[in-house]
Amino acid sequence: QVQLVESGGGLVQAGGSLRLSCAASGRTFRTNTMGWFRQAPGKEREFVAAITWSGGSTYYVGSVKGRFTISRDNAKNTVYLQMNSLKPEDTAVYYCAQSGRVLSSNPIAYDDWGQGTQVTVSS
């Protein structure tokens, strides 16, 4: 099992940027797909982005394409989510997750989850 700890959330004005990090401990990080999800109050958890173990393939939800970038550093067992041009509708708790499967936007495909980090975008 992999333990995941997110950091980097906070309060930012619309148009600003944040970089989320997810530090993983455990032996399987380097071979797993990693994903970011978010959940706003009263809404279901939503897929944001995912990246393959090699970093060679990425996948984004349409609403963040061109604004968010997912990346990973396997030497540091860390996955990142660079968020630019933030909008109030990006406000949510952001979770990272790991999967032993191919790229997927379905939360069911992910086996381990972090506790989340709050991102709040003010208008």
Give the arrangement of secondary structure elements:
Layout (H helix, E strand, L loop, with lengths): L2 E5 L2 E4 L4 E8 L7 E7 L6 E6 L6 E3 L7 E6 L4 E6 L8 E8 L12 E2 L3 E6 L1
Parallel strand pairs: 2-11
Antiparallel strand pairs: 1-3, 3-8, 4-5, 4-9, 5-6, 7-8, 9-10, 9-11
What can you see in these coordinates?
The chain is mainly β and 123 residues long. Helix content is 0%, strand content 50%. It is built from no helices and 11 strands. The strands form 2 sheets. Strands 2, 4, 5, 6, 9, 10 and 11 form a 7-stranded mixed sheet that branches. The chain has a 4-stranded antiparallel sheet with strand order 1-3-8-7, with no helix packed on it. Strand 7 and strand 8 form a beta hairpin. The termini are far apart. The model has no long low-confidence stretch (mean pLDDT 93).
Whole-number average pLDDT? 93
Q: What structural class do helix, strand and pairing data support?
A: mainly beta
Shape: globular
Order of helices and strands: EEEEEEEEEEE
Short description:
With 123 residues, the chain is mainly β. It is 0% helix and 50% strand.
Q: Which descriptors apply to this entry?
A:
seven-stranded mixed sheet; four-stranded antiparallel sheet; globular; 123 residues; mainly beta; single chain; 11 strands
